[in-house]
Amino acid sequence: MEILRKVKIIDFVDYSKYGLIFSIFLTIGAFVLFFTKGFSLGIDFAGGSSAQLRYEQNAPLAQIRQILEKTEGFKGSQVSEYGSNHEVLIKIPYTNLFAGKNLNVILEETLLSTGKFEIRKLDTVGPKVGNELKQKGLLSLFLATLAMMLYVSFRYEWRFALASIIALVHDVIVTAASVIVFNIDLNLEVVAALLTLIGYSINDTIIVFDRIREKMLIDRENNITQVINEAISNTLTRTLLTSLTVFFVVLTLFLFGGENIVGFSLPMLVGVVFGTYSSMFVAPKLAIIFGFNIQEYHQKEIKKQKKAQEKERLRRMYENGVV
């Protein structure tokens, strides 16, 4: 299936200068958020309890907050609407007061005066387990990024490899910042979204870079700008189809999956958009900025081909008994 039957060559390299400026501002803004507002750790990482309540009537959020704030052990709890005005999510900080006790019963007794409700879900994570989950989650992100860095370093000329790595880190930083912007708790779902994004983003960049390399080897064109523009334009249909397919699947999860997976679906929505954008408007332009020389690349490829031909000639001579 093709969206663009007749390929029109778009000057992506020229537009990329605006993309780089936009990305620089986004990255700076992301770091400002990291060091000022910071992440709100979810129960998975911070420890504590998360209770989901469903009322028969509209949930009295103000009354619930007032009661919990006056009750020992529940001070500092976060109360918010959860999907509908009948459901409430209560995040309770960890305390030793509830150790070994049935929190369901305590919560029911504490909120008895707020109306008739049922506790649909109650999750509790200790601080030690939460800290271990946080360390393992961050470690998995680091290792996944490192693995992608090693892969592209062996696969491409170092300038293209460096450009793809920077684009990948850019996508992760921007997506992580969106977690703060949309007030999503940093938990295992967010880590899963970032890990998925790492694979998606680097795959998108590799498709574009492979096409650029093919164009350089086949056409022997010495204008790198023209090669990049033609390569990205030729892969534009594939990129749009893939990105839109993933985007609409994740959008369906976000719209109909409920609050339970918003920590995965919303960062993925942001990540798909910026992963596609960076593969076309950031990574190729960075390769040019880093001083990639297409003439030198062609000379290296010619030397490689000559070495391969000489190796093949010597192998045939050896097989035929000629020394």
Automatic annotation (TrEMBL):
Q: Which GO terms describe its biological process?
A: intracellular protein transmembrane transport; protein targeting; protein transport by the Sec complex
Gene3D superfamilies assigned: Multidrug efflux transporter AcrB transmembrane domain (1.20.1640.10)
What family does this chain come from, according to its entry?
A: Belongs to the SecD/SecF family. SecF subfamily.
Which Pfam families has this protein been placed in? Sec_GG, SecD_SecF_C
Gene Ontology MF, one? protein-transporting ATPase activity
Q: Which InterPro entries match?
A: SecD/SecF_arch_bac, SecD/SecF_bac, SecD/SecF_CS, SecD_SecF_C, SecD_SecF_C_bact, SecF_bac
In terms of superkingdom, the source organism counts as: Bacteria
Quaternary assembly = Forms a complex with SecD. Part of the essential Sec protein translocation apparatus which comprises SecA, SecYEG and auxiliary proteins SecDF. Other proteins may also be involved.
Q: Which UniProt keywords apply?
A: Cell membrane, Membrane, Protein transport, Translocation, Transmembrane, Transmembrane helix, Transport
Q: Which residues form the Protein export membrane protein SecD/SecF C-terminal domain?
A: 113-290
Predominant location: membrane
The residues that cross the membrane are 20-43, 137-154, 161-184, 190-209, 239-257, 269-294
Q: Where in the cell is it found?
A: Cell membrane
Signal peptide start-end: none
Its topology with respect to the membrane?
Multi-pass membrane protein
The answer to whether UniProt assigns keyword Cell membrane to this entry is yes
What does this gene product do? Answer: Part of the Sec protein translocase complex. Interacts with the SecYEG preprotein conducting channel. SecDF uses the proton motive force (PMF) to complete protein translocation after the ATP-dependent function of SecA.
Q: Which GO terms describe its cellular component?
A: plasma membrane
Keyword Zinc in record: no
Report the HAMAP family cross-referenced here: SecF_B
**What's the name of the protein?**
Protein-export membrane protein SecF
